[in-house]
Amino acid sequence: MNYWLYHPNFRKRRAEVLAQTNNRCKRCGIKNRSFAINSEGEVYIVYLHVCHVFAGEKYLEDAELIPLCPTHHFYFDHPRGDTPEGRADWAFIGEVHREILVRQLVQTSDQQEKSA
To answer: Which domain does 54 fall in, by range?
Structure first.
């Protein structure tokens, strides 16, 4: 991975995000470094990615990050078309964005209450 493309603290944040989520994919729940079998019957190890929720935030220190397996990271960045799978991709993306917006609203409300 080309870490120079990201904020200097990305590795630290990656470890924090994985720890906060018990090293599991946010969408399917597979655990980091799990064994899996591909369509040809070959065994491989799944290494979780930490995905930037908003593409333009790669360089931000406090970018929104979520843990995803490689398959779901791909579908997060490239949702499938108008199929049941594609609608599930878009529903997941919408849920992630909703969670972030709700968290930000709560934080803003808390800050306003403290300053009042």
So the answer is: 3-115
79, two tokens: 């949702």
Instruction: Tell me the C-alpha distance between 109 and 98, whole Å.
Output: 16
Distance (Å) of CA 55 to CA 69, 74, 115 = 17, 13, 33
Which pTM does this prediction carry?
A: 0.86
Domain count, the chain: 1
Q: Which of 72, 94, 91, 57 is nearest to 27 (CA)?
A: 72
Task: Give the C-alpha separation, 65 to 50, whole Å.
Answer: 6
Task: Quickly count: other Cβ atoms within 10 Å of residue 45's Cβ.
Answer: 9
Whole-number Å distance between alpha carbons of 98 and 51? 16
Q: Give residue-wise pLDDT tens across range 58-85.
A: 888 889 999 999 999 999 999 998 999 9
pLDDT at 1 over 80: no
